[in-house]
Amino acid sequence: MSIINSLKAESIELDNRTVYKLDTFAALLYEWNKIHNLTGAKNIKAIYDNIIDALYPIDFISFPKNILDVGTGAGFPGLVLAIALPNSTFVLSEPLKKRASFLRFAIMELGLENVRVEAVRVEDLDAKPFDMITSRAVTNTNFLLKLTDKVRDNHTQYLLYKGSKVFDEINEASTYQLCYDILQKNRRNYLYIKSVNVA
């Protein structure tokens, strides 16, 4: 089984080198997950589905240079995006040691030079504002905006991987003025926030 068919089914076109790295990442995660329980994706097909989920927005959004992924977990979406977007630099914020260890191992094995892991909570991250902040299934939108206050400025964008409650979360974030779009695919809502201002 290869990820090529999954990519073709979603009309996601990547060069052969990137496809190879994604397939290698999937195999690494599958083996580590048997021992360390890093993700609920227990088989290769489920891992491929998570990779496709992470990649879907790349055809619709122009990704900037400097990106922070909050709560990367087993690599979704931050590490997958780093593989597919070599011209962007990524910081993966993942406080759980076993997941951070896997991410560092995968980065080394894949020879990725555009990504590093910070094994801290995002609120403890010492960094300049990022061009974009991504996150999947970490917390609600309002709280995530508060947590990342120190690492964003007026130009920071967000790409948040959300479920069916995305519209409720936007309403709850009433202390912010958000300029946003929502991309929808199956049960996934990709919340693309172009600008954040305090209301």
In short:
The protein has 7 helices and 7 strands.
Keyword list:
199 residues; alpha/beta; Rossmann fold; 7-stranded mixed sheet; 37% helix
* DSSP helix fraction: 25-40%
Widest sheet: strand ordering: 3-2-1-4-5-7-6
Q: Give the ordered list of helices and strands.
A: HHHEHEHEEHEHEE
Q: Residue-averaged pLDDT, rounded?
A: 95
Query: What is CATH's topology name?
Result: Rossmann fold
Question: What would your notes on this structure say?
Answer:
The protein is α/β, with parallel strands linked by helices and 199 residues long. Helix content is 37%, strand content 23%. The chain has a 7-stranded mixed beta sheet.
Topology (elements, then pairings):
Layout: H1 4-9, H2 16-36, H3 44-55, E1 66-70, H4 78-84, E2 89-93, H5 97-110, E3 115-118, E4 132-136, H6 141-147, E5 157-162, H7 166-172, E6 176-185, E7 188-198
Parallel strand pairs: 1-2, 1-4, 2-3, 4-5
Antiparallel strand pairs: 5-7, 6-7
Helix pairs in contact: 2-3, 2-5
